[in-house]
Amino acid sequence: MANKKESIQQIIRSDIVNGLIKPGQKLPSIRKQSQKFGCSLNTIIRVYQELENEYLIYSRPKSGYFVVAAEALLPLLQTKRIDFASAAPDPASIPQIDFRQCLNKAMELFEASIFTYPDPQGLLSLRQEIVKLFHQQQVFSSEQQIFIFSGAQQALHLLAGMPFPNGKTNILVEQPTYWGMLAALKAQKQTVIGIERTPNGMDWVTLERHFQSNMIKFFYTIPRFHNPLGTFYTPEDKQRLAELAKAYDVYIVEDDYLADLETNSKADPIRAYNGASHVIYLRSFSKVMLPGLRIAAAAVPDSLIPLLQWHKHTADLSTSVLSQGVLEIYMKSGMYAHHAKQMKSLYNHRFKHLREISQRLLPKECLYTIQSSGGLFSAIRIPDSHAEDLVKRLENRGVDVLPTDRQFLSSFPKLNLLRLSIIRTDEHAIEEGIRIIAEELERAQPTSSSPKPFFRL
């Protein structure tokens, strides 16, 4: 009986938040609802009481139950949102007091540098700390090979537009991929080729053909914790990529933006697989530290250093000294390693919960990459028909999701995927959000006598 009551309650609640029952409209009587749902009068009474406790409906003596006014309903729905869309850290997870201390210390230590234009490549002392950090992840480089950028987006923008030593001009990207990279390429009118990244990896025959025949300047890849899929390359895949890059003189831009969340100590980057001559290893600090600091670092091959020095200098003269100083102090003090460890544990716990709940509640055909392990993102596949309507219904029910449309090239065949992020969701929100997604997917199923397939093949 409890399940029956909850099911009826959710149906009525959904009709309210989706506008099928308008604000101010009177609800059917308790007797009519009991006949409609085939249940007792007491069940409907309890349903209405629960909805009244949620401030979705109210009673008028001797008149019945009514939906609350729109101006009262909207703030309520907005305060109960479940955020599967964000990629920026929850402010509550950031140790802001520690950052203030580091900022104050940076003001003291780097006061002289604030009034000058420092090295466009980055503060030498910070680059030395980055070398140590990269060494821990088997990326062995010198301080001369390290560049500090005003965020990873600046690095991607510069790399997309500058010439490379191989003299090639076309850029190969995974599909789907990080939208910021696609935006940088589009803004600069670069010639871009897409290659599908599936839950099972890459079509190696197609990749090698592109490397061999299509004048590929570089291949942009997110080997682990892929955005938006959340998938990984195997060690064999990484070694093969490094070997193909050298064989065909194609550079690899390895976006390892979530390396701090890696739980497998043996999971090395592509750069570690004898790829130093052709792999540009890029790290962001936005998911562990404050995104507003706008700091990223890269280890680049020797062949690229003079070109990148010039283009970095023309872009911004130098990255913010204060931001660099804060990161350096944060790293030297041990705060960075401590906080990264905490975030790894927190996000890994949330991701496991997302996987468990999704496998229990969602249709198997939706679990596109939900079986992945760790990181921030997973992708579910939704019906080809009524996809926009489904996203809107979820939004109306307080669940924010991110369709992956803009993570595909306009010329590349798109899949109807939703990226689910756990960066701003706790266990309760994950469970409630997946339950709502499951209910809306069920409602999206065709009800005609000759149903269409769930997905277009």
Structure commentary:
There is one protein chain. By secondary structure, the protein is of the alpha/beta class. The chain folds into three domains: 2-77, Orthogonal Bundle (Arc Repressor Mutant, subunit A); 82-91 and 337-444, Aspartate Aminotransferase, domain 1; 111-333, 3-Layer(aba) Sandwich (Aspartate Aminotransferase, domain 2). It has 16 helices and 15 strands. It has helices at 2-17, 30-37, 41-53, 70-78, 96-109, 111-114, 124-136, 152-161, 179-187, 204-213, 235-247, 305-316, 321-332, 335-361, 387-396, 427-444; strands at 57-60, 64-67, 82-83, 146-149, 170-175, 192-198, 201-202, 216-221, 251-255, 279-284, 296-299, 377-381, 399-400, 402-403, 417-421. The radius of gyration is 26 Å and the shape is elongated.
The average pLDDT is: 90
Sheet-strand content, in percent, reads 5-15%
Total individual domains: 3
CATH class of the largest domain: Alpha Beta
Low-pLDDT sequence parts: none
The residue fraction in helices comes out at: 40-55%
CATH homology-level superfamily of the largest domain: Type I PLP-dependent aspartate aminotransferase-like (Major domain)
Q: What structural class do helix, strand and pairing data support?
A: alpha/beta
Q: Over all CA atoms, what is the radius of gyration?
A: 26 Å
Described by strand count, sense and barrel closure, the largest sheet is: 8 strands, mixed
Distance between the termini: 39 Å
Number of helices: 16
CATH topology of the largest domain: Aspartate Aminotransferase, domain 2
- How many strand elements? 15
Family: In the C-terminal section; belongs to the class-I pyridoxal-phosphate-dependent aminotransferase family.
Protein name: DNA-binding transcriptional regulator, MocR family, contains an aminotransferase domain
Domain HTH gntR-type: 8-67
InterPro entries: Aminotransferase_I/II_large, HTH_trans_reg/aminotransferase, PyrdxlP-dep_Trfase, PyrdxlP-dep_Trfase_major, Tscrpt_reg_HTH_GntR, WH-like_DNA-bd_sf, WH_DNA-bd_sf
